[in-house]
Amino acid sequence: MLLIEYQRYYTKKMRKIHLNSYAKSSQNVTGGEVSQTVMLKLRKALSGLKKEAPVLKRKVRELHIDVDEDHVSLQDGREVVVPLISIYEGIKRDGKRGECININHISGYGKSSEEIWLEAADWIYNTYDIDSIEKIYIHGDGALWIKEGIKWLPKAKLVLDKYHLNKAILQATGGEADIRQKIYKAIREGNQQRLKETIKELHKKASSDKKKKRNWHKGK
Length: 220
Description:
The chain is α/β, with parallel strands linked by helices. The protein has 2 domains: 2-158, no CATH class; 169-218. The protein has helices at 2-18, 22-30, 36-46, 113-127, 144-147, 149-152, 162-173, 177-189, 192-218, and strands at residues 62-73, 79-88, 91-94, 97-100, 104-107, 135-140, 156-160. The strands form 2 sheets. It has a 5-stranded mixed β-sheet with strand order 5-2-1-6-7. The protein has a two-stranded antiparallel sheet with strand order 3-4. Helix 1 crosses helix 4 (113-127), helix 2 (22-30) crosses helix 3 (36-46) and helix 8 (177-189) packs antiparallel against helix 9 (192-218). It starts with a helix and ends with a helix. Residues 1-34 and 214-220 have low confidence and may be disordered.
């Protein structure tokens, strides 16, 4: 039933999207500063990242989707933001090195967030046996266009990737290195209770430091 609903929705959306000209894509992404011809060339070049779906659908228990944005310099010196989606089945370890299994890249240059996720959902439904998938993890920084993927993929769950997770922890803990290590340990062990207790400890310490600072100013 879910697949039938998706196919109906997909057909309806594709008809609407195909009506969008390259001029509209240029207006959406660059304010019309990049010509239709350049948009066409860029999208053709980036389409080389895309793989053909296999004849037989693969069965996997989980999928991972890395979502990020890259800043690309144009010949005239300007920069444009290119959304990127990478879909893979997990990571194969070879010593310290890791390799994404059956990875497929999707470029979102000149596309709306709806178009990007529609293409990603289309790839997944054409490549995998949907009933075999138990979980889909979307790794990103939590931007609105990234969260939109959850609407297109009902089994998806948003998680912070390692870079943005480390960045958030560093910002939250500041100079509290001991507490930061406790947070990392709780995350590695998957201990939610210890993580909550450590966050409370951090909050309590932050409140105490603010109180000390206020008292110091009053005593001056």
